[in-house]
Amino acid sequence: MNKRKKVSIKVPGSTSNLGPGFDTLGLAINLYLSLEAEPGDKLVIDVVGEGENEIRRDADNLVYRSFLEYFKFVDEDSFPLKLLLKNEIPLKRGLGSSGAAIAGGLLLARELAENKVSIFISFISYLAIFILNRNRTSFGRANSNSENHSSLLFGFFSPFNWVSAQFLAMV
Exposure winner among 33, 81, 91, 129, fewest CB in 10 A? Predict the structure, then answer.
């Protein structure tokens, strides 16, 4: 791990309320969760934007939890972060705020970890994390069952969003 490396990620919100494809077809939307992270001596989470008074700022923050899960997945020691979340995605509205938080945490971890896995495997592990943790506290609230996280997976894989996320992860 490069102790001085700073990573910025931008993840789209999503919806799966698409007529006959309700809860199966997903679409990325033009609302984003932007994350800036760098290794730190202790966990520090700052939040601005939507939900800034509701999103957790401790180790139970969903971005940080998914970050830690990635390190478990690649069998590597994790570390505390200095993390800034700039959120445009409304909470509790079915617009993918929890999904974006999980995806953002995984993408941050992938960029900061020594052991890299493919983007596809990262999102498969994202789905597993969601299934295993579906009743735990989510991005800023309890019980994320009302949001369909499959929409993030499929909406995120549109060519524009995949390329932009890869580009932003490298900047």
Answer: 91
